[in-house]
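Thread title: Can someone regenerate the structure for this chain?

I was given the following input by a collaborator and told the matching structure tokens would be attached. They weren't. Posting the sequence so someone can regenerate them.
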Amino acid sequence: MKLSSPSPQDAGFSLVELMTVIGIMILLAGILIASLPGIQTRVNRNQVEAFIAEIESGLSKYQIDHGIYPQNPGGGGDRDTAGIEGASVLYKHLSGDWDENGTADIQENEDSDEKVYVAKLSYKENENSKNPRSDVIGGEFMVIDTYGNPIRYLAEPPNIKPEERTTINPTYDLWSIVDADPGVEEDQAKHITNWQSN
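Best answer:
Regenerated them for you:
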């Protein structure tokens, strides 16, 4: 039996089909590549939202045990600066690293009565992590978001008059600036917060 070779017309048709398939694949690859930055941004934001929810849960447990939320040290400054200082307050009170040596005190001393309110928050647990939850910034241990920025936290004593309060919530404010500029008012709509943004 003799096999016949394809006619030039059949070969041309196959080439057109092949070029069409390649063209469609290039178009789909272009669409996928164009959407990747948006997908990564959404993934990062979802991670920050989940982490803030975890911190809120830890703060609730802390408040049940101590009767009050961790308080920011007094000293004034603008809201963002006070919020950044609050990142070290969160670290100290929620990681269980009261002596601030990078390791939760309960891991060093089984008799310690300190509690870990947010798991895997101590510096040593995050030192070599791909997505750390804490870091040393300006010589202080701080809770950080997926973008590497300090998670802002602001809490004031409960007996402050509402008109003197700098927090938006009556309990505490917790927010991440994500990839926005904290000094630009229009960028504040991008922040992930525990209050309703306007």
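The chain has a mean pLDDT of 85.
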